[in-house]
Amino acid sequence: MIKNQQTLKEERKIIFEMIDASWELAQRLGEHPVKTGCNCISCLNKRKRILKKQEMKWKFSL
């Protein structure tokens, strides 16, 4: 039981480190178009939006 909790904590730490690294990369690269191999948080979010279209209609618009 304790070993499973330790493993879970280690996996969560790795995930947070990956997220931090993607934010740092986005800051370093600045604004840029979506690139295929880019792992910055901006490109990840843009690719996610392209792959999974918005199914819901937004209630508010600008």
**Run of helices and strands:** HH
Summarize model confidence as the mean pLDDT: 84
Fraction of helical residues: 55-70%
Count of beta strands: 0
N-to-C terminal Cα separation, in Å?
51 Å
Category by helix and strand content: mainly alpha
Helices, by number, come to: 2
* Biggest sheet details: none
Q: What is the radius of gyration?
A: 16 Å
- What best-fitting shape do the alpha-carbon axes yield? extended
**What proportion strand?**
under 5%
Query: Low-confidence segments, ≥5 residues, pLDDT <50?
Result: none
Features:
63% helix; 62 residues; extended
Secondary structure elements and their pairing?
Elements: H1 2-29, H2 41-51
Give a quick summary of the entry.
With about 60 residues, the protein is mostly helical. It is built from 2 helices and no strands.
How would you describe what is shown here?
- There is one protein chain.
- By secondary structure, the protein is mostly helical.
- Helices cover 63% and strands 0% of the residues.
- The protein contains 2 helices and no strands.
- The protein is extended and about 50 Å long.
- The N and C termini lie far apart (51 Å).
- The relative contact order is 0.10.
